[in-house]
């Protein structure tokens, strides 16, 4: 059962879909006017980890993340570049997608853009005006009336005396302040100004463009309706952006909006804030020039508790590189184990109860503790038949590829593997009595290993028609391929 800290209730809440089937969550995406920096990507990576955990737990998800492709910054920089707003934002959106792919972030199921949803935003403003929650000014802008929503501030836990009025103002010019009923009211629709150039749309209140807070509410309503499971973003968006979303969405559409709120704390760099003036607002491209790969960046950004600020340093990327190298080695060992345990006996999974005759050369080697393998010189590429060697290089009594190492006697005449990790094959194969003739234990030999008595032939024979419990092998030491045992080439 997964729990997350909910910003609104200030408690850890269980994560479960409202409809019992699909967890629907919305994430505030990037403003595509420049490359996203590592502070942005900490939020996106933590959201990606959250989604993967939910899906691995067996719950389907619907992940919606928007692109802000019209606001003051996108308009300003596109005009400086002397290109259309569409061309300018498309190029930066492509860059963002390439960075997400490099960081191994799953793409959202839906990625709507603000420009593509202008009609939906106009309809929401019309509903707010009709219900008395918004009002037009003389210049054609439309503002949300905060006093019409008594619960304003409940998400950020601010009362009216604590509200940062400068943030809610979303000021465009000083003149806007005097056209509002209250200095705390925020803009929903901005009237056309000369600095907007050709970036405006017709509306019932005149030509203009939507305010930043409006786009998320309109897109959430289109794809999720009035209620959905979870809303996520950086902690800097709690107020005023998400507070404004709640107000305008609930007033326009009703419903409860997001049931849970998942916010990710800030990223620090070398113990301080990121700043262009300090030269520490790193992008993936900046870090690549310093020799650091995207997978190391992801490892660092995913490594901290999401509710606490994470301190990023260049030395942490070196530590991440070493950790990833260890995991790559571990992965190679597991893949080698899987390759050796795949092949001729695959049909046993389909007939788990059928006794199997194992060939003589597959006989068990109880003296084998950890082995090294020599590649068959007569076979080019791949892994050929193996010769089994002890730690000291001695050959066992009978060579050939080994099966599970050895078994111990347990009460009731039952034989079990010495350790669960030594019997991935035994977990699937019921042994036939004829096969036991080739095992030293079948001749009545006994051996003590790790304080456990090795079973004789009688105990092993008692298991002839039964499957033996166990699990997959685990990596061992550095000598040999890192496994406690291996079966013949191609075993399960």
What is the helix content? 25-40%
The Rg value, from CA coordinates, equals 32 Å
Unreliable stretches, pLDDT < 50, 5 or more residues?
169-178, 344-492
What strand order characterises the main sheet? 4-3-9-10
- What characterizes the major β-sheet? 4 strands, parallel
Walk me through this protein's architecture.
The protein is built from twelve helices and 18 strands. By secondary structure, it is an alpha/beta fold. It has a four-stranded parallel β-sheet. A hairpin with a 2-residue loop joins strand 17 and strand 18.
In short:
The protein is 29% helix and 15% strand. With 492 residues, the chain is α/β, with parallel strands linked by helices.
């Amino acid at each position: 059962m997964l729990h997350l800290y909910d910003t609104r209730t200030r408690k850890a809440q269980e994560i479960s879909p409202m409809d019992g089937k699909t967890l629907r969550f919305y994430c505030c995406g990037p403003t595509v006017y420049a490359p996203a920096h590592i502070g942005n990507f900490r939020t996106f990576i933590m959201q990606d980890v959250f989604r993967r955990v939910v899906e691995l737990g067996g719950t389907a998800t619907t992940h919606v993340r928007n692109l802000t492709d019209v606001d003051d910054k996108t308009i300003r920089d596109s005009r400086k570049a002397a290109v259309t707003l569409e061309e300018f934002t498309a190029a930066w959106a492509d860059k963002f997608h390439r960075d997400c792919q490099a960081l191994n972030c799953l793409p959202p199921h839906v990625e709507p853009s603000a420009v593509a949803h202008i009609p939906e935003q106009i309809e929401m403003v019309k509903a707010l005006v009709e219900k008395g929650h918004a009002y037009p000014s003389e210049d054609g802008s439309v503002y949300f009336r905060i006093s019409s929503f008594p619960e304003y501030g409940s998400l950020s836990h601010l009362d009216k005396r604590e509200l940062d009025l400068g943030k809610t103002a979303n000021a465009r010019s000083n003149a806007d302040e005097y056209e509002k009923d209250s200095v705390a009211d925020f803009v929903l629709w901005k009237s056309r100004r000369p600095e907007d150039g050709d970036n405006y749309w017709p509306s019932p209140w005149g030509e203009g463009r939507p305010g930043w807070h409006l786009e998320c509410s309109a897109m959430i309503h289109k794809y999720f309706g009035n209620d959905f499971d979870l809303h996520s973003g950086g902690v800097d968006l709690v107020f005023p952006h998400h507070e404004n979303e709640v107000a305008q969405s609930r007033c326009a559409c009703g419903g409860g909006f997001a049931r849970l709120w998942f916010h990710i704390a800030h990223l620090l760099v070398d113990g301080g804030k990121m700043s262009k003036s300090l030269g520490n607002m790193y992008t993936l491209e900046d870090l690549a020039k310093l020799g650091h790969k995207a997978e190391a960046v992801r490892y660092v950004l995913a490594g901290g508790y999401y509710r606490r600020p994470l301190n990023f340093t260049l030395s942490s990327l070196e530590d991440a590189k070493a950790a990833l190298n260890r995991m790559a080695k571990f992965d190679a060992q597991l893949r080698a184990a899987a390759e050796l345990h795949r092949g001729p006996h695959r049909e046993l999974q389909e007939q788990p109860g059928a006794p199997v005759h194992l060939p003589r050369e597959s006989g068990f080697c109880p003296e084998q503790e950890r082995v090294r393998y020599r590649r068959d010189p007569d076979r080019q590429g791949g892994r050929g038949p193996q010769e089994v060697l002890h730690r000291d290089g001695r050959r066992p009594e009978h060579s050939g590829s080994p099966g599970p190492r050895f078994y111990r006697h347990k009460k009731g005449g039952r034989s079990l593997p010495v350790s669960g990790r030594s019997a991935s094959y035994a977990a699937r194969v019921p042994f036939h009595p004829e096969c036991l003739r080739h095992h030293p234990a079948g001749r009545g030999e006994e051996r003590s290993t790790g304080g456990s008595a090795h079973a004789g032939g009688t105990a092993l024979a008692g298991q002839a028609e039964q499957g033996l419990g166990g699990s997959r092998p685990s990596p061992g030491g550095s000598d040999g391929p890192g496994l406690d045992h291996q079966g013949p080439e191609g075993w399960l």
